[in-house]
What does this fold into?
Amino acid sequence: MSGYLRIKTPEGITFSFQLAGPLVRCLAWIVDFFTIMIISQGVGILARIAGIVSEDLAVAVATLGYFTVSIGYGIITEWAWRGQTLGRMRELIRKADPEVIEEWKWVKATNPGTPVWSHGGILCTGESYKNVVKLTFMKGAALKDPARLFNSSLDGNTRRAIDIQEGEQVNATAFQALVRQAVALNGVGPAKAAKKKPAQASKKKASKKKASKKKASKKR
It folds into this structure.
């Protein structure tokens, strides 16, 4: 698949990641460059002000500023938006299914774990990667997706995923519809109750027909 990176886990699960093109990477580099330059100018001004008091203080401010810009900027831009995105999607999941169970699974010493939402079985998981936040629906291939939210792991027979990039907004109504479908597919929730009602009604009709036939035979 052109423009995608495919990774297969030891468990046999395949994940597909869309790769950014050269133009997108170039624009991202330009934005980072000018942002860091502006922040560095501010640090330089602070260092010059500190130099009025003490030369050593100026060196300390400049050194601290350099590490803050070079390391802190990467941490903020690479991680902050992921937490916000996961938090926003978590809220949508809870609104779509108030009885959903939230857990952190597969925690390791080198990995804080993965958020998992379940109701009658796993509905979806949330993973954070460098360029995307991925929401993987365990039975996504069986869900109707008219809004075409699924944009990753499309070649699997079971799973489907939604890759959310920084600044991207997901259609809340369509996403919640997917969650409700996943709940119904696990055999729980309002959709299951709705399916039962017609069946119960048909049974009542059948019993009434049998009763009327018995009455008619007795009269004869």
In short: The helical segments are 22-53, 55-96, 172-185, 190-219. The domain at 19-194 is CATH 3.90.1150.200 (Aspartate Aminotransferase, domain 1).
